[in-house]
Write a sequence for this structure.
């Protein structure tokens, strides 16, 4: 039944996609552009069809005060082939043999840092962009992306108070199940035609590869969005209140080392094997992690993000992405700042608590974990509807 419903919904989406796309292009363009094919050996992705006018691109108004990090790096995504061979050195070691399979897989490919792009949007930061919203998603979670586009991921031409635009992108790898790949890849290509908001890289979208997603995004940002003042990065199962985010940012300067979220201090690596975040002692020997912000949603300044990209490049990959980012911050000597409005571990740890359903709380927050698409749409409606709250919650 679910499959039937899904195929019907997708067929409809396809029809809409094709119609909208045909309207937005001259017939000539429509014929020229072929769908990205991702099976078989990855092809070099030229940013054709998304041609950036670099002259204007680099001369955005923000360039008046040049950023301290001069752009020395590539001006396009320069990884065009996947050259990732298993590290067979490890298999001879006895400690390696005794690890769980997913840790062995992680370590076997840990040295493979960058992969080619399958879907790119070099044009995303063209013009005056104030806030870039990026959302970690996986290929099968189309409904979450749809709900986010209709709620907090909505793009704005202006962030208000004379500020630039708010733009949204989703960050994806490839389908983790081989048999899903061809089918979902086609659908994703149509989805991207319709909305133009997908960045996709040619690596497997697994939990341990989220760190790859982190460094791929930072590298991408360095190339294609060098001047964006602020970035919000979050999960696809959170509630975000963009009005509050923008109010919070109103008196921040992009030059600050702003990195704010739900910060954990002295968190210990989890050593219980049945936990999702379990880390064997061979992978991390210190008793605690550097301070880090929960990956569910955090804000950072663009300049800091570019420096993070270079800092992360000096470290070996760590399987937990938000901890890894904390390690990169430590390299820079930057402390992440905790803020009450970021509840990436839920409002109340008690799942049954009524606070987790209370719209007045959501209205006063910046980010709350965790809401599924139907809950997100419903909560969004409540928060932006006729809501009377008995007392104003002062969080900002
Ligand atoms: C891939 O890597 C191997 C060893 O690291 C190297 O010998 C080979 O030339 C590389 N191939 C490409 C296409 O970069
Ligand atoms: C495997 O070991 C050799 C020799 O010690 C080393 O040169 C090579 O870089 C190692 N391979 C990887 C992927 O670390
Ligand atoms: C990460 O992605 C690469 C490339 O697709 C893959 O070879 C590797 O096994 C993945 N690692 C994990 C831990 O899933
Ligand atoms: C909003 O609240 C007012 C007063 O309580 C009510 O008259 C009105 O119908 C409500 N509007 C909506 C859209 O619910």
């Amino acid at each position: 039944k679910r499959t039937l419903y899904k195929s019907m919904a997708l067929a409809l989406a396809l029809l809409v996609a094709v119609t909208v796309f045909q309207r937005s292009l001259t017939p000539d363009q429509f014929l020229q552009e072929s769908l990205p094919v991702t099976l078989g050996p990855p092809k070099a992705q030229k940013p054709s069809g998304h041609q950036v006018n670099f002259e204007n691109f680099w001369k955005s108004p923000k360039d008046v005060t040049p950023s301290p990090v001069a752009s020395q790096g590539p001006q396009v995504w320069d990884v065009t082939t996947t050259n990732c061979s298993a590290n067979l050195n490890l298999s001879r070691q006895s400690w390696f043999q005794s690890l769980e399979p997913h840790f062995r897989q992680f370590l076997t490919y840990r040295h493979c840092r960058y992969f080619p792009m399958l879907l790119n949007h070099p044009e995303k930061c063209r013009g005056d962009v104030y806030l870039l919203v990026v959302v970690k998603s996986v290929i099968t979670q189309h409904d979450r992306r749809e709900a986010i586009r209709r709620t907090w991921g909505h793009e704005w031409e202006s962030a208000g108070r004379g500020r630039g635009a708010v733009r949204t992108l989703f960050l994806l790898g490839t389908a983790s199940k081989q048999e899903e790949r061809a089918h979902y890849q086609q659908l994703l290509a149509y989805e991207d035609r319709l909305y133009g908001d997908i960045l996709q890289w040619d690596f497997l979208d697994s939990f341990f590869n989220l760190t790859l997603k982190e460094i791929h995004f930072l590298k991408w940002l360095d190339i294609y969005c060098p001047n964006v003042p602020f970035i919000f990065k979050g999960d696809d199962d959170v509630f975000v209140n963009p009005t509050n985010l923008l109010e919070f940012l109103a008196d921040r300067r992009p030059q600050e080392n702003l990195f704010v979220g739900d910060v954990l201090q002295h968190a210990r690596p989890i050593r219980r094997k049945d936990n999702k975040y379990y880390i064997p002692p061979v992978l991390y020997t210190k008793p605690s992690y550097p301070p880090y912000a929960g990956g569910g949603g955090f804000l950072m300044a663009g300049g800091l993000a570019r420096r993070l990209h270079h800092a992360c490049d000096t470290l070996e990959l760590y399987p937990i992405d938000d901890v890894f980012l904390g390690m990169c911050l430590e390299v820079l000597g930057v402390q992440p700042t905790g803020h009450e409005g970021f509840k990436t571990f839920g409002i109340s740890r008690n799942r049954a608590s009524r606070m987790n359903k209370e719209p007045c709380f959501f209205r006063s927050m910046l980010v709350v974990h965790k809401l599924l698409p139907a809950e997100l749409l419903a909560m969004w409606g409540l928060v932006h509807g006729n809501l009377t709250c008995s007392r104003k919650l002062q969080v900002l």
The chain has a mean pLDDT of 85.
